[in-house]
## 1
Amino acid sequence: MNHTKKPSFFARLTGRTDEYEDDFSSGGERAVFVGEGGERHAHISTRNEEWQASEADSELAVDVYQTPDAVVVKALVAGVQPTSIDISLTREMLTISGAREDEREVEEDNYFQRELHWGTFSRTILLPEEVDVDMAEATEKHGVLMIRLPKINKKRQTKLKVRSR
């Protein structure tokens, strides 16, 4: 198994190798403060298991478009069982989350290239218009999830009859 050390946040951000990496190897990040008296270094332990788990979620790629009567959201969910997809909807916001299971058929060391995402994914979309949550539909065909969200007709009028008690 390949045990290469993951570069620190600052190394990924700046492309620099971290000369103080061994001093702070407990999983946190190194912060550099520059001011009077030169550089000062501090160890910041901000990563907990919950934060790392949420970082592992990949963001689901989506297309969002409209028809005259609906907002439509499409997402590629190839390799995901429809029962593993969770869709939460309000009138203004849509959240799609789920998990793509990896059936490890190949040892990690035998990969030359590995670009497919396995594991959890999540995406929250602020909708461009209010939608009717009761009439929303979600279908999956050939690995494409399609969510049709009917727009609320804000110009629709109805007459109310006054009843006496």
## 2
Amino acid sequence: MSLTSVHSINNQNLRTINDKMFDNMDLVGDIEPAVTLEELKEVFKYCFRCGVNWEQHHVSLDCFECGGYSLERPCPICDGHCRNIWKRDLEESHRSGEASWIGECSSKCEEMGRDVNQICNRLEKVKATF
């Protein structure tokens, strides 16, 4: 069995404890601040898969998330015939891991493309009956 002595805490001991706590609080000031919203937005402009910087117009042609383009691309529906530029959907591109775009096609090619597909499907059915 061991003997333990009990000491009462006096003002000097309290001051020493407080001084040590304040010394340790100085270490807290050395911690880097949290990431700002602007810094986070900058990170979003990089491809999460291959790491290229889309804002500097870098792309990887064999990366699904890049999709061969940086932050903008010609209309994917009519291959740019309508001259509309589509913007990368950063959130969806990162979430899905595949290039995702926001924009509209103002060309008649979109409608013609559907008509051509319907005609091709009908021709294949006709061909299959012969």
## 3
Amino acid sequence: MVDGIEIDKNIAEETLLPDDLNSLAVGSYVVPDPRKRKQYPYVVLGVVLLSFITSLIIDYVSFVPVIIILSIIALLLFLVNNKFTIQQQEVIERITNNIDHSIGYYSIALTFQFTFKNILTPVWTVIVYSHENPPLNKTIIEINAFSGTVITEPYTENINA
């Protein structure tokens, strides 16, 4: 896996480049495990319970709208499926047959697409550049993180530098 583009320290200082743009300054980035998101509905339900208890103690303030809204949000969070089978390390292997040019370097981002079936479907969005320096081609492709199928037709363009 490519850790990023190394930027010479002198050039970075001359151009006032922030450290967070140099991926080697802190190491390679790995998308956080989405299983942590399974905790969110329980946190929201905890706030609902706290609001309900507070509404029993304080009579002059109605917490009913808050309880209803937060309960709906907790339900939606339970419906969001946070599992996916295609991990970040496997994405490039899955898309190599759909790209017309060589792979020089790439950028992978985890995004979400709204569908009625899964509420939010995780999608790997990948930007792939050809191996030349500077690259001649750029391709953008999206694959479903559940099934590994290509969601959109790969968009390839020539880069005229």
## 4
Amino acid sequence: MKQHTAFLSRTLRSMLAVPVVALGVVALSATQASAVSRPAIVAAAQDQLGNSARNHESPMGSGCNYYTGYFRTWKPAGGCPSSDGVQWRDSDWCADFVKYVWQRARVPHANVPETGGGILTGWAASFKDYGVKYGTWHTRGSGYTPQPGDSVVFDWDQSGDIDHVGIVSSANGSTVYTIEGNSGDRIKANSYSRSNIDIVGYSAPVGGTSEEPRDGNSVTGDPYADLLTVDSAGKLMLYSNNFVRDNGQPYTGSEPREVGHGWGGFARTMPADVTGDGFTDLLAVNSAGKLMLYSNNIVRDNGQPYAGSEPREVGHGWGGFSNVIPADVTGDGFTDLLTVDTAGKLMLYSNNFVRDNGQPFTGSEPREVGHGWGGFSKVIPADVTGDGFTDLLALDSAGKLMLYSNNFVRDDGQPYTGSAPREVGHGWGGFSKVVPADVTGDGFTDLLALDSAGKLMLYSNNFVRDDGQPFTGSEPREVGHGWGGFAQILA
């Protein structure tokens, strides 16, 4: 994906902000493809190396670091700061750093919590264990040429115990270059002779490829969310973003074009990267409750998404939910589905597209991930924190916008429950539609709000700049008018 500075969004981001709300507003953002790009792993490590807010211990030499706080909440926090919603914690942290980078790059098995049976832990030796288990382990003396994105493990005193781990950024015939956490109390770029006896070996990421990460956050497959509208005649119109080309003014620089018809008859339409290829597909629930998948083959079909193949049924019985919310809950690049039933229970239907031979949402029993969700006027999925896991924004009857952070890995696969929600805005009840979309292409979901006059207003996220308080640090700006006449806005 595109190399910005919000970690994966800027590097491989599969950023997802695919909302569905009762008002017929859906956000059309896609998630990153499932292939594990080695350049994306390195870019994610470089992103953290350059992040001056967290690329060192604070206070220096204290052991307090962001990465242990992100994963291992049982470690001591005395004297440690907090940032980006994470309480920093005191521990050796080289393994936490490498796990964070691998998880951001969507390396298989890196997102399984340590306390939930995950092989990667806070111990550097777990990276050798990963390679041994999945057949990607190579000793220093094996003749293997280390590849970008590999983990490299060290035994500083040749005692037989692994002491340290880093990320390989590059290598040549004689030298391996690395990016390491907990190297002199900070993240550092280092280099070693490939014959250095401190190097034990390398574990490659499962499924690693040398392909550059491809942008994927929209109908057109770039990181800038486009808009789809359904008019009263059922026509599906594409408004391309073109944020960079048009000097930061999205949706206005080109005439919209028709990309489908007959879309007015569905009970619910949801954008979601079901197939994990980085292009937003569409899911539609018909009057019989069948869930139909319209794949986006915009490249194959010469710029015409959703029309080149017959839709196929991927589920039934979906008509009875009060809300269906597409969201990459598990952070694997394939959009899952959340449902709210009449009792207010929040149920997760995982998308195991690859495991289940292209049949999403059906291979596992749904599981409850929350309750009491029936009282909100809107539930908006959005990667507010820019970490690749979809958070939820809930709008209450008073117009308050509440953020429920995902924290899927930290909380052992139980999203939205490990932290109290926090208010990130008020006065949101007066908008007829609120559409989450990464308009600016930085990996953090922005919000588009439609007022009673049909004006489309952009509330930029600016999560990092504004110290974790999204949507409030800048005045909203108008990015369109005349949007009030559409039956649906899909973003």
